[in-house]
Amino acid sequence: MPAPRRSRPSSAARAAAAFIAVFLGTLAPLAHAATFLVFAAASLKESLDEVAGAFRAATGDEARVAYGASSALARQVEAGAPAQVFISADLGWIAYVEARHRTAAPRVNLLANELVLIAPSKSAPRLRIAPGFDLAAALHGGRLAVADPRAVPAGKYARAALESLGAWKAVENRLAPVADVRAALALVARGEAPLGIVYRTDALAEPRVRVVGTFPDSSHPPIVYGMVLLQGATPAARAFARFATSEPARAIWARHGFREP
Predict the structure, then answer these.
(1) What is the distance between the terminal CA atoms of the chain, rounded to a whole angstrom?
(2) Do residues 127 and 251 both lie within one domain?
């Protein structure tokens, strides 16, 4: 007696089988997705979050980013914090971790920025920043919000610029020094300080402030963000460092106001 013919699966069944195959295929990379820690300057918050999201979408791997003052992050690296990538707002703190043999590859000069004077969005006229400008008078008895000029890159750049322009002595006792540049931005945004010095990209990220003056590039050392792989960097962390310099990432950096170094 001839064997009964097997019925062919319906188109719906074939479609369901194909869907399941694709779904199961997506689970494999996700099951092996890597997670790693990135230390990054506070001024990178919005842009680096976007870069990390694009990297996760492309690879399935996740860069968990801890933001802070570059000086504080460098000291944490020195103390053995498990970060695998470090992005600093100046090259000095990259050199600091290099000197302590905490790096796994040469640094990359990743980004450049500008230094600006900001005020609450509904106050203060634009100021012409030039040698001899009277910043103290523009404070009207208030204080100048600035990242700690003793160690934090934004504060060090601010002091260098003010010294170069002859305005430092008049305001050094009128400062509101804070832990990082985003804290200085917040003081001005909340109206707790009439003026502050931050990076241009910080001002672009905060609608409650506006730029009232730009410091000449010649008044301070070049603002260059360095990126370096740290000891113990995994293949995923190394891939992230490469992605951060790729064309898709460059488009993100530029959209947030960063320049080529």
Answers:
(1) 82
(2) no
